[in-house]
Amino acid sequence: MLMRVPTATIRTQVVVPLRLADGYVTEARVFSFDGLVDGREHLTFGLGDMASERSPGDSPRIPLVRPHSECLTGDVFGSQRCDCGPQLREAVERIAGFGGFLLYLRQEGRGIGLYAKLEAYALQDTGLDTYEANLALGHREDERSYVAAAQMLHALGVSEVALLSNNPDKAWQLRRCGVSVSAQVPTGVHLSAANSRYLAAKAERGAHTFDLGLAPGLRSASWG
Length: 224
Ligand SMILES: [Zn+2]
Prior knowledge:
Bound molecules: zinc ion
Shape: globular
Oligomer: single chain
Order of helices and strands: EEEEHHEHHHEHEH
Strand order of the largest sheet: 1-2-3-5-4-6-7
Strand content: 15-25%
């Protein structure tokens, strides 16, 4: 069943040269928008051949698209409690190589916010997994919505995507908002000693599609 998605429009588009922490260099066209449903300042990064100027009527070939939810601790500071930093790093390069869009969604901590995420971490240190901790704080397991992501794609003239994600909920929500997902491309598994329980919980509880067998050590991770 399709959901009616309000129209958003491109507000600004500007080229930003990127140099990532490991020295990888590329160029992005960064888009902001008017009319996003939740009033947050979500961004889209056009990469590769999608970094050229766009007008709303454009209908290019199918782009590789990753909706990435903001994670200040992981994206900026390299926190090893999650795999967000390496996922973002991988996504930028893969999208730049193929041509597509990184949707940077300002929904920290699966939508519960930065402070609540830190409180959830504290609860995880007492033995709860990431989903149980959110529930203990009175939040849902995952509060993220991809309506604004769909609005941004519509504003960019993108009606069909190859989705770079292991999360079936992203594909389901985008399809419901009228975005055709013609392929779902898995991301790599970025395992470290500190995030193994987090990844195991994502796989068990969030029905993520990555193969645990590819991640040595995950099965023996402590569940507290
Ligand atoms: Zn994270």
